[in-house]
Amino acid sequence: MQRLSTSDAGFEKAFAAIVDARRSSDDDVAADVRAIIENVREKGDAALGDYTQRFDRHVLTSDADWRIGAEECREAYEALDSELRDGLELAAERIRAYHAAQLPENRDYTDEAGVRLGARWTPVDAAGLYVPGGRAAYPSSLLMNAIPAKVAGVKRLAVVTPTPDGNVNPLVLAAAHVAGIDEIWRVGGAQAIAALAYGTERIARVDVITGPGNAWVAEAKRQMFGVVGIDMVAGPSEILVIADGDNHPEWIAADLLSQAEHDPTSQSILITDDADFAGRVQDAVARQLHDLPTGETALASWDAHGVILVVGDLSEAPALANRLAAEHVELAVADPEALLPQIRHAGSVFLGRTTPEAVGDYVAGPNHVLPTGRRARFASGLSVLDFMKRTSFISASDDALRAIGPAAVALAEAEGLPAHAKSISLRLT
Amino acid sequence: MQRLSTSDAGFEKAFAAIVDARRSSDDDVAADVRAIIENVREKGDAALGDYTQRFDRHVLTSDADWRIGAEECREAYEALDSELRDGLELAAERIRAYHAAQLPENRDYTDEAGVRLGARWTPVDAAGLYVPGGRAAYPSSLLMNAIPAKVAGVKRLAVVTPTPDGNVNPLVLAAAHVAGIDEIWRVGGAQAIAALAYGTERIARVDVITGPGNAWVAEAKRQMFGVVGIDMVAGPSEILVIADGDNHPEWIAADLLSQAEHDPTSQSILITDDADFAGRVQDAVARQLHDLPTGETALASWDAHGVILVVGDLSEAPALANRLAAEHVELAVADPEALLPQIRHAGSVFLGRTTPEAVGDYVAGPNHVLPTGRRARFASGLSVLDFMKRTSFISASDDALRAIGPAAVALAEAEGLPAHAKSISLRLT
């Protein structure tokens, strides 16, 4: 953990290093991923079977080896504690409501020149969702990816998920049941992304692929960008807590650790104007780490990437926050409203002392798939728009073409595109 | 040119081959582009200077070698024919009006559980626009990229454009004047994309890069995706004309050639229900090719990729069009309205006999930067959204957290994320 103060002589240099740091493991998996993709593209299911046996120790032979049925998902759901069932249902309902209100409006109008113009939004035909196996198999992620696609109107949703040694995560199956998914393939890794992008004998290709994954999955998605749509390049995630001295140190410590427990590459940053409070949070983090079942991961993250930054005045915080462009920003201050408009680059903002980031991971409604690694400078969280596309349309009457056509003819000729000019001028004679 | 009929025995196979064809030149430039990017990232302006001297035969020494000033753009504008000046102004005004209406609305509401939820759209801080030199240096493209960024509220717009042998295209400068751009760098290729993405001593880094370019530029953008936002992976473009037999064959021929003249990899496809009309269009294309100054390119495209497809009934056309997912679709039929809702995958649709595609390239208003190479299945044309990002926000009162928090605690514990659970449960006690 690094402790800084804006009044330190070396502050700017130290802060710039934090902003520019690449926290990702620099595994160069690009070449391996390229080979896997080419192999799946050429050999289809046979290649998928080979990789799945090799990487997941799962043999794909019968239909049941390949695919998990809707019945199995329903059974997993019914076997859950009612508390968890209710939790999944509440989360799904709130995610659905928030995303339904995101549906974009079509446009259709005729302007003063008499040209009818518009744009129509339509869903993609098919989306693929990657759901990690193992440690990061989160039912909440399945809901956060699947529900926006469903709300967008996507007809076919195909989930791919590795089942190492044949093990499936019943919570993920239960979430699939809640989300209404009936196509789940027991494949993972770069090979699963390739199968979704190009299609195989069994798995029909999709148009968009979303969902989190390890370095191989992320690189495969990056390589398939353009063949299909993808949500984003995901990287290590982060939280920035801006807190005054009137917060409970234990609360803020838990918030910082909730990010740190995800992964050793996660980053938790506290900005406060109260140096004593900063010390109390630091102590609380140390205490909580001691008892935390995920303490090993959280400690690795906090040690390597944690930052406590003391400012002279909280009015300095927004400028620093905008340079960090964090995935999650908590405003644990007396008047979060006053700060909100100044936070221009952030994936999601959590206002006030009783809005811990974790509530947004599950049940608040907005998507928890958010831009990481400073990408909030230019990227947005997952939304229904990631599963839709817009088609513009133009309709010019004869009169309208006479009004605007000659300008287009002049520009086309100046650009050296005579057939463009002719396609208009023929209609003007 | 390939002529097909849906009644041919081999139709499905031939059509599938057209849908799946990769028309791009398969230059494997990825490794070279990677080396250029790394070099610019490490050595900055020195590397930019080396590459610009080598590839563009332009030496970057003085400030004027590096950068084109606003004054030079104004002079280029003033030196234009008034017809062209008016054309650029009309285009700019109409593009501005169409894109202004695209600005998304923010959201801010409190739901029944008492949770305040919302989303705020903000522009990126800086955008970089690539403008090709040489044959494809189109002022219209500059307007189509720059104006949406300006409308989005982007404060800084940096244009990069190669000036081979020191030559600049005055029309492009004039368009820059019209668009209000005052930062133009005389660099191009993958090295210019790297400079925009990582920044150099002279060129500050940007957040989003848009604009067309050759294979090297496209690959550089693809590699920088994630470091910055990019508009899309551009490929060879295409037009699909759906026409009944009541059209003038010369008009439709000109429309097909307006796409073909762009590039030998462009594709023009006619679908008609009238075999005689198909023949008349084919003849008209041959005649027009003879006189066309861009005939060599257009012929290469038409020979290699042109398709005339005769259907038994125009009701077959939408399903074929959706498989082709073309960049541009013309509906040159008596009742284009009836077909429009069935065209689900298209970049832009042009309705009726007096709406040639070329009008949309210049002055209609909607963006002419559109998804190519079947990507209209999942991608949209350039819009203000490409220069903005959305930040969600959540505010839970103490009561609201008590209403939805326990479900989040249960889910977090089930996912094995105890610090997530604790950050909420501490606030509930």
Automatic annotation (TrEMBL), chains A, B:
Its cofactor is Zn(2+). SUPFAM superfamilies: ALDH-like. Keywords: Amino-acid biosynthesis, Histidine biosynthesis, Metal-binding, NAD, Oxidoreductase, Zinc. Binds 1 zinc ion per subunit. PROSITE patterns: HISOL_DEHYDROGENASE (PS00611). Transmembrane segments: none annotated. It catalyses: L-histidinol + 2 NAD(+) + H2O = L-histidine + 2 NADH + 3 H(+). Gene3D superfamilies: 1.20.5.1300, Nitrogenase molybdenum iron protein domain (3.40.50.1980). This is Histidinol dehydrogenase. Signal peptide: none annotated. The active site is at residues 327-328. Substrate binds at residues 237, 259, 262, 328, 361, 415, 420. NAD(+) binds at residues 130, 191, 214. Zn(2+) binds at residues 259, 262, 361, 420. Belongs to the histidinol dehydrogenase family. HAMAP family: HisD (MF_01024). Pathway: Amino-acid biosynthesis; L-histidine biosynthesis; L-histidine from 5-phospho-alpha-D-ribose 1-diphosphate: step 9/9. GO terms for biological process: L-histidine biosynthetic process. Its EC number is 1.1.1.23. Catalyzes the sequential NAD-dependent oxidations of L-histidinol to L-histidinaldehyde and then to L-histidine. One of its GO terms (cellular component) is cytosol. One of its GO terms (molecular function) is zinc ion binding.
